[in-house]
């Protein structure tokens, strides 16, 4: 290795596989081969994204967690013509016609 074959910035041999310097020409810090400068020189005043610390997460107390109560899901089948209604647990696939007036039956989710 002679002085002519050594990169002045990073000190690597330029005759071998020297795709780019991994040292910043401004401060000598580590940078990627495709970047022109290191993160500190390119973005002065910003801390690197990879070193930002996330605050410690507090684990929830098991005794404080109350399981959510599932409410009963009910459906209302009602006649569009006469308004006659019936509450059911399972929605019918084809509600058919009203028994009393022969009107169209509709299904809705009950509150």
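Sequence proposed for the structure above (111 residues):
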């Amino acid at each position: 290795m002679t002085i002519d074959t050594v990169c002045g910035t990073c000190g690597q041999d330029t005759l071998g596989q020297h795709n780019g310097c991994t040292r910043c020409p401004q401060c000598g810090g580590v940078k990627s081969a495709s970047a022109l400068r290191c993160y500190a020189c390119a973005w002065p005043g910003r801390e690197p994204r990879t070193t930002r610390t996330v605050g410690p997460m507090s684990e929830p107390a098991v005794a404080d967690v109350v399981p959510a109560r599932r409410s009963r899901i009910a459906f209302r089948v009602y006649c569009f013509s006469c308004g006659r209604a019936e509450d059911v647990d399972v929605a019918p696939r084809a509600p058919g016609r009203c028994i009393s007036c022969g009107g169209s039956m509709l299904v809705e989710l009950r509150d």
